[in-house]
Amino acid sequence: MAIDDPLSALDEQLTSEDRASDPIAQRFLALARLLPSPWPVDRLVERLRANKLERIELLATVLREELKRQQEGLADVRKALPDPEGNTMVWLQLVEDGFKKAETIRSAERVRRIGAILMNALMVLPQVNPDEVEELMRVAVDLSDTDVVVLREFVRIEGAGVTNPRGRMDRYDAHSRWEFGEWRSLGISEGDLQSTCSKLEGFGLVTRIAPPNNLNILADFETRYALLQKGQRFVEFVKSSTAKSSDTH
User: Fold this and answer.
1) Residue 244 lies inside a defined structural domain of this protein
2) Which of 49, 52, 32, 48 is nearest to 40 (CA)?
3) Are residues 192 and 135 in the same domain?
4) Could you give the number of structural domains in the chain?
5) How confident is the model at residue 246 (pLDDT cuts 50, 70, 90)?
């Protein structure tokens, strides 16, 4: 059976289940009925269902297109795996989790990132840990476009330094490399940059670094951060196959 066949079957099953029973829509309807009249309750419920199905279909479309594009590479992957059928089943379970995450997202770009993570997980050899893939998808749900742009800038200026045993650049090197970041060109204020970095730190993608010992402790300086391996891994996994062909970073 072709690998896109079980994906289509899974998509059809989820869509059928959604049509048969939608607990979120049911609760939404119950709450909407408590609002002062007149409210277009029926239209609101239909819009809720349509938006959710649209996001599910977007992820399915992304995966189908990538699967068709990567057929030759998928054949090589199957040959290299000791248990290709088992690997496919694990991946489909991750896809199901991806569909469930996609239906809660407003941003189409975040849905596409989940699709890229799933495809990269399927194509990477040796195969990645499914728990890591789940974690990367969870992060993809919560990071905004600005968060990802900032993280990519970290990879650009510090990516070569995260392969050492510490999993990040040495403190002094990371502090110095920060100055090479084109932060102003990202179109965000220093305050927003600090807020974004703090958020990225919360997901374990970057870590704040203490300033060098030769700085005056009374000086007013910005907090600087260092890229972690998980942050670099996330950026690698959210690249689509199309982006890989044109992205040189």
Assistant:
1) no
2) 32
3) no
4) 2
5) very low
- The answer to whether residue 243 sits within a structural domain is no
CA atoms within 13 A on the CB side of 1: 11
pTM: 0.78
Q: Note the pLDDT tens digit of each residue in 113-153.
A: 999 999 999 888 667 799 999 999 999 999 999 999 999 99
Residues 6+ apart with CB under 8 A from 6: 88, 92
Q: Report the candidate in 144, 145, 168 with the shortest Cα–Cα distance to residue 157.
A: 168
In DSSP notation, 33-77 reads: TTSPSP--HHHHHHHHHHHHHHHHHHHHHHHHHHHHHTHHHHHHH
- d(CA 110, CA 144) in angstroms, rounded, equals 8
In a domain, 249, yes or no: no
Rg (CA), the chain: 22
- Alpha-carbon span 161 to 228, nearest angstrom: 9
Q: How many Å apart are CA 43 and CA 17, to the nearest integer? A: 21
The predicted structure's pLDDT at residue 152: 96
Expressed as residue numbers, the domain containing 234 is 145-238
Mean pLDDT in residue range 58-85: 88
**Residue 115, pLDDT score:** 95
Q: Indicate whether 233 pLDDT > 90.
A: yes
Cα–Cα distances in angstroms (integers) from residue 96 to residues 3, 99, 105, 159, 189, in the given order: 14, 5, 15, 31, 38
